[in-house]
Amino acid sequence: MSVEILDPRLTRPIDLFEVAEELEGDTIAAVERRGKYLVLRMESGLALLVHLRMTGSFGFEPTSHERAVLGLDDGTRLAYRDVRRFGTWLVLENTEVEPYLAGKNGPEPLGPRFTTDWLVARLSGRRAPVKAVLLDQRVAAGVGNIYADEALWRARVNPLRPAESLDPDEVRRLRRAVRAALRTGIERQGSTLSDYRTPEGSRGGMQEEFKVYGRDGLPCRHCGTTIAKTRVGGRGTWYCPRCQPHGAG
DNA sequence: ACCTCGTCCTGGTTGC
DNA sequence: TGCAACCAGGACGAGG
């Protein structure tokens, strides 16, 4: 594998040229995902951790805003694109990967550790809006703004409710709703709002499944009530005022 | 500890 | 049409 750096500011404060030097000539042994991190395990014992943030992506087709290019040994050109340059690359020793990620991420929502008991414990004593807590990667790794809103709609829970105010049945519904929303997103290969493409260059289809995200002014798919927009922790937040009332249940 | 806000960037959309 | 303001899939640090 060769590594070509197109934007030296790709990672700060880490020196990307140093990253490139470390990876040059190495061989990818395995590719994993943990929460929102991609992990490329190298045969040398190093690992490249990539976080795409808002607009990062990998693709096989040449495109604009390329920040780095990986040249695979079979001739494949794999370009890393990131319009807003929020994405991060980090090289660690393989043994450092788990401790690093464990500090950032809680359980995988589709894995066995994401139980109702876990979620009850994480929400208890938290007065912040339940949506803000749901976006904490240590609560559920990988849940972002879209899936938080979609899950809360499915669970019929208002995003502004204090996390600690949810009763056990609501938490149970929320756990199931997070899992269902993520599964749908995976089936539909993600949401293409503007930038996102699969590595093959095709658009995701999840945006066609949105129940609330970005749908202010449109009718709720369940009850017809006009979807409302508010802000939670600085993030755009959509919900159905009737299906997700800000009272009990 | 918890919680909110500003910041890191670029580009597309909206409103005057 | 021009241009400024605002908004966007995320995470982190500062400060209350």
Question: What are the salient characteristics of this protein?
Answer:
alpha+beta; N-terminal domain of MutM-like DNA repair proteins; Helicase, Ruva Protein, domain 3; 2 domains; four-stranded antiparallel beta sheet; DNA-binding
Description:
The protein is of the alpha+beta class and 249 residues long. The chain folds into two domains: 103 residues, MutM-like, N-terminal (N-terminal domain of MutM-like DNA repair proteins), CATH 3.20.190; 124 residues, Helicase, Ruva Protein, domain 3 (Orthogonal Bundle). The chain is built from six helices and ten strands, in the order βαβββββββαααααββ. The protein has a four-stranded antiparallel sheet with strand order 1-6-7-5. Strands 2-3-4-8 form a four-stranded antiparallel sheet, sandwiched between helices. The N and C termini lie far apart (54 Å). The chain binds a DNA duplex (16 and 16 nucleotides) through loops.
Report the structural category.
alpha+beta
User: Do you know the CATH architecture of the largest domain?
Assistant: Orthogonal Bundle
Q: Which ranges are low-confidence, i.e. pLDDT below 50, for 5 or more consecutive residues?
A: none
Round the Cα radius of gyration to an integer and report it. 20 Å
Overall number of structural domains: 2
Give the arrangement of secondary structure elements.
Blueprint: E1 2-5, H1 16-23, E2 28-34, E3 37-42, E4 46-51, E5 56-59, E6 66-71, E7 77-82, E8 88-93, H2 94-104, H3 116-123, H4 130-134, H5 145-155, H6 168-187, E9 228-232, E10 235-239
Helix pairs in contact: 5-6
The structure holds a DNA duplex (16 and 16 nucleotides).
